Structures are given as C-alpha cells and as structure tokens.
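2024-03-11 09:14:02 INFO worker-7 job=invfold-0412 stage=load source=structure_tokens
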C-alpha cells in the first residue's frame, strides 16, 4: 500500500470535523465518538487534529497549529492524546482491526 489513509480530523480554525467518506460504513456510534473526541480536543487544545492509518494499519495522531498561534497548548496536546489513547484503547484497537481487514485485506483470526 505504501501510503497513509486519513480517518478523520477537526480544526479549531475552521471549526469543522472531517470524516473520510471511505469510512462512512462505520457504525454511527463510532463515527459520533470520533467526532466528539476530535472536536473536544480542538476546543481544549486548539490547532488541528488528524487521525490516520499508517501503511501497516496502525492508527496515528497528528496535531498542528498555525504559526504564531499563542492559544495552541503544545504540552496539553501530548497529555490529551495520551489520555484519549488510554481511555479509548478498545475503540482504537477495533478501528485498527477494521482497517487491516477491510482496507489492507488481512485475515481476521479470532483468538481462542
């Protein structure tokens, strides 16, 4: 595959949430949870947040801010991401599994 695939993102600057249309078939509850997390993150921290899958299917987080944005909380950004990864670990693992099976074509082997 060799490329990243954006899942979703939000921006404090445009006050918008984006969900990649390729993921429209996710359950509504998951899409809503992603929206809430991304929007709350940008409201608390500022800047922009993007969730994407790397070429191996791992879910990654990327934050950015506009140059000179004094309201962007860089330290809070790291803490907020770690909190999100800890509190939503099951959701994140499920999204990675979904991506690996439906986008990368990996076999799903259920553990016994």
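2024-03-11 09:14:09 INFO worker-7 stage=emit residues=112
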């Amino acid at each position: 595959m060799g490329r990243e695939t954006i899942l979703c993102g939000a921006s404090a600057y445009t006050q918008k949430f984006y969900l990649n249309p390729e993921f429209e078939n996710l359950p509504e509850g998951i899409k809503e949870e992603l929206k809430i997390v991304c929007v709350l993150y940008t409201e608390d921290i500022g800047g922009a947040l993007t969730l994407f899958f790397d070429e191996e299917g791992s879910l990654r987080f990327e934050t950015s801010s506009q140059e000179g944005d004094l309201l962007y909380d860089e330290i809070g950004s790291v803490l907020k991401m770690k909190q999100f990864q800890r509190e939503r670990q099951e959701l994140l693992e499920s999204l990675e599994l979904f991506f690996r099976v439906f986008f990368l074509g990996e076999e799903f082997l259920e553990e016994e």
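2024-03-11 09:14:09 INFO worker-7 stage=report msg="The first strand starts at residue 5 and ends at 11."
2024-03-11 09:14:10 INFO worker-7 job finished
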